[in-house]
Amino acid sequence: MEGWARQDPVSAAAALAQLPPSSGLDETTTHFVRGWLSSSDADPTDIFSWVRSLPEKTSAREQAAVAFFEEIGRRDAQSGAKLLAGLDAATQKSASAGLAEGWSSTSPEEAAAWTLQLPPEKRTAAVRAVVSNWARRDPIAAAEFAARNDSNGDFVSTVVDEWLPGSPQQATAWVESLPRGDVRDAGLAKVAEIVWREDPSAAVLWASRISSASRRENELQSICSRWIRIDPIGATSWIQNSTLPPKVKS
Q1: Distances (CA, A) of 54 to 29, 45, 48, 86, 210
Q2: Which of 87, 103, 191, 211 could disulfide-link to 91, CB 3.0 to 4.6 Å?
Q3: What number is the average pLDDT over the span 149-172?
C-alpha cells in the first residue's frame, strides 16, 4: 500500500476504501498516508483533506491523522501546526502528539516550546512525545527541559525510561539531584520499575527513597508482590527485615 500510494495515490485510495474493517486496516491506512506524502508530486493539503474525509471517531481516521502530522512535523512543522485547527477535537489530541513527535526529530527545542502552549487536554501527550524522542538523542537537554516544566513526574519518568538503560549512572544521579517532591518521587519510581527487571533487591532500595509515605508503600508492595513470585525466600526476608509498618508487611 505504501509503494502503491507513492506511485498512484488515487487508485490506492480507491482500493483502500474497499477494504473491510479489520485489525490491520489502521496500519494499512498509516502506510498509505506515508506513501502518499513521499510521492514526488504530493500536495499536503490534498492528503489532509483525505484524512478529514474519513469517518469521525474511528481509529483509522485517528491513525491516519497521526501519520500525516508526524511526517509533516519533520518537513514543515509550522504549517502542520496551522492545519491542526481543521481537525475535530477528539482527533486533535493524538494528531498533536504526532506533530510533536515528528517536529522533535528535527528541532526538539522548537517542538517543546510549541507543546507548552497547547491546551492542557492536548499538552501532556504532546510533551511526552517530544521528551521521549529528545531523550533518545540528547538525554541531558531533555532532562533539563523535563525538570523545568514537569509538575507531576510524567516528563521526568519519560526521560528515565529512555536514558537509564544506556547510561544508568548518569540517569540515576540526575534523578537523585532533583528537588524532593512528587517529580523526584516519580523518577525514583521509574528507576525502581526498570531496575526490578534485573535486580529486585536493588529496586526496593530505590523505591525506599521515595519521600511520599503512601507512594513509597504502594511502590514497595507492587515490587514485592512480583518479587515473591520469582524469589519467595529473598522477598520474604527483605519484607520481614524492612522498616515497613506491620500492616504493610502483612
Answers
A1: 10, 15, 10, 13, 47
A2: 87
A3: 96
